[in-house]
User: Fold this.
Amino acid sequence: MRFVVDLERVVVVLRDADDLARATVVVASPRRASAARRATVHRLADVLAATNMGSLESEGAARLRAEAVRFHAAGDVDDEWERRFSRVCEKEGEDIVVPAEVIWPEPLLGPEK
Assistant:
């Protein structure tokens, strides 16, 4: 499953909910966003918190709230999905989370437009 994040509009959209092989947070906008830019990393952490999706770890991975993932998937998945989804969840203290890799936009090859 992929959570596509727009840092400018503060929007998070779930794509490929049925693909539970791995969870990713894909930063789609702005194109200049990068893990090397402290401001955009901070912005991603803010967007994840503001949308109640989860948090960003110090090493750059995301921890998504299981309830937020369920909310985004509601209506797009079948009853079997919940059983499969529970396998990717981890208990973290009182919380149930889904670890997710963060994917940043590819660097632009030419001048930014």
Notes: DSSP finds three helices and seven strands in the chain. Helices lie at 38-50, 66-73, 79-86.
